[in-house]
From TrEMBL:
This is Pyruvate dehydrogenase E1 component subunit alpha. Pfam families: E1_dh (PF00676). Its cofactor is thiamine diphosphate. One of its GO terms (molecular function) is pyruvate dehydrogenase (acetyl-transferring) activity. Tetramer of 2 alpha and 2 beta subunits. It comes from Morus notabilis. The pyruvate dehydrogenase complex catalyzes the overall conversion of pyruvate to acetyl-CoA and CO(2). It contains multiple copies of three enzymatic components: pyruvate dehydrogenase (E1), dihydrolipoamide acetyltransferase (E2) and lipoamide dehydrogenase (E3). PANTHER family: PYRUVATE DEHYDROGENASE E1 COMPONENT SUBUNIT ALPHA, PYRUVATE DEHYDROGENASE E1 COMPONENT, ALPHA SUBUNIT BACTERIAL AND ORGANELLAR. Residues 362-389 form a coiled coil. It catalyses: N(6)-[(R)-lipoyl]-L-lysyl-[protein] + pyruvate + H(+) = N(6)-[(R)-S(8)-acetyldihydrolipoyl]-L-lysyl-[protein] + CO2. Its EC number is 1.2.4.1. Residues 92-393 form the Dehydrogenase E1 component domain.
Length: 431
């Protein structure tokens, strides 16, 4: 089962839950959409536009993953996951949740500095995709990056320590929450500017293709996953990179984590056509919409998108409908979102849903899952103790990796870092 390239693919569009929504040409006057799309309760005012072009365009679009539907049909005889995989997936999702809950505690106790953006609610996306990767494959994240790092195998203690700004962190305490990076794990960041990681991911995918096709490295079949949010999809870098990746058939999967909000801006209010997955076919790559609260569905879509990239068939755009259970960052009181919307998604908690699936299908029992939870709770506790006990970086590290030419600003004529001179922080040093 595979996705087909769009323009050649004459498959009927499977509508998302938009059928109740009046089309803009149904009624020439302004109307309010009470927004059934993607489960948001946000009210949206549309301006009517002649929308024939819209209808024509959607007919060429690839539909929601048939992979999932096909598998579902077989589900009574053929489970979507084995016991071992199920436990691995559960463990990773539970780790993501427990880690983030601990971050909230530590942040409010003053152990972390700057902004800290948590991933609660979105675990099915990180786990569903990243657990399918090999070590050599690359992941490019956003500022909501702790859980992507954990799924990619960066040890919890190295992530926690980074958050504490300690020298044992995965960036020696120099990056902090939004800048997780690990060469060993091919986690290429952590980016604070939205959209900034997408070109980096495209470059990583280009490098794999170049090594394979130009340098003839037969094993260079690495795949890159670029994660980013719905708000980021209105940024030019998204479109530029889709174009380049499709043009050069790069081994990349663009994973949109559509949690319906960009800080306090509703996706429906900010985006002319909120169905992001439709933008894949516009560039000649498959676009897929998947329930991002269901890790098993995400995994099925991810399997095919990753395999497609590894086979050299090019990029895929996957839109995962998900939701964040906390505010935008830990500094956000989260007063803008409708409590009914929050409650609706809370009821679809991806960890609870997976647990139910595993137990109902006798893939795991409560005791086994409790044992996983206990192990992870201890691991997270240990990560905090490790981070707390770790030393702060030396002052001399302050300007390392900040300047391309460290001799130009960071290091004085005596060969020592200028920041080591007490006058540096007093502002009276000669620099
Ligand atoms: C280039 C740039 N513009 C604006 C911002 C400010 N900003 C920080 S987060 C954010 C919203 C991003 O929303 P989304 O992409 O949906 O990600 P989410 O936070 O929902 O995961 C914005 C606009 C930024 N970081 N970078
Ligand atoms: Mg968002």
């Amino acid at each position: 089962m595979s996705f087909s390239a769009t323009t050649k693919f004459a498959q009927p569009v499977v509508p998302l839950n938009t059928s109740a929504t009046p089309r803009s040409n149904d009624n020439p006057s302004l109307f309010f959409k009470t927004s059934s799309f993607l489960g948001s309760t946000h009210k949206l005012r549309f301006n009517p536009l002649p929308s024939k072009a819209h209808h024509r365009r959607s007919a060429a679009v690839v539909a929601v993953s048939d992979v999932v539907k096909e598998k579902k049909r077989q589900a009574s005889t053929n489970l979507l996951i084995t016991k071992e995989e199920g436990l691995e997936v559960y463990e990773d999702m539970y780790l993501g949740r427990a880690f983030e809950d601990m971050c909230a505690q530590m942040y409010y106790r003053g152990k972390m500095f700057g902004f800290v953006h948590l991933y609660n609610g979105q675990e099915a996306v990180s786990t569903g995709f990243i657990k399918l990767l090999k070590q050599k494959d690359c992941v490019v994240s956003t500022y909501r990056d702790h859980v992507h790092a954990l799924s990619k195998g960066v040890p919890a203690r190295a992530v926690m320590s980074e958050l504490f700004g300690k020298s044992t962190g995965c960036c020696r305490g120099q990056g902090g929450s939004m800048h997780m990076f690990s060469k060993e794990h091919n986690l290429l960041g952590g980016f604070a500017f939205i959209g900034e990681g997408i070109p980096v991911a495209t470059g990583a995918a280009f490098s794999a293709k170049y090594r394979r096709e130009v340098l003839k490295e037969a094993n260079a079949d690495d795949v890159t996953l670029a994660f980013f949010g719905d708000g980021t999809c209105n940024n030019g870098q998204f479109f530029e990179c889709l174009n380049m990746a499709a043009l050069w058939k790069l081994p990349i999967v663009f994973v949109v984590e559509n949690n319906l909000w960009a800080i306090g801006m509703s996706h429906l209010r900010a985006t002319s056509d909120p169905e992001i997955w439709k933008k894949g076919p516009a560039f000649g790559m498959p676009g897929v919409h998947v329930d991002g609260m269901d890790v098993l569905k995400v995994r099925e879509v991810a399997k095919e998108a990753i395999a497609r990239a590894r086979r050299g068939e090019g990029p895929t755009l996957v839109e995962c409908e998900t939701y964040r259970f906390r505010g935008h960052s830990l500094a956000d009181p989260d007063e803008l979102r409708d409590p009914a919307e929050k409650a609706r998604y809370a009821a679809r908690d991806p960890i609870t849903a997976l647990k139910k699936y595993l137990v109902e299908n006798k893939l795991a029992n409560e005791q086994e899952l409790k044992a996983v939870e206990k192990k992870i709770d201890e691991l997270v506790e240990e990560a905090v103790e490790f981070a707390d006990a770790s030393p702060h970086p030396p002052r001399s590290q302050l300007l390392e990796n900040v300047f391309a030419d460290p001799k130009g600003f960071g290091i004085g004529p005596d060969g020592r870092y200028r920041c080591e001179d007490p006058k540096f922080t007093e502002g009276t040093a000669q620099v």
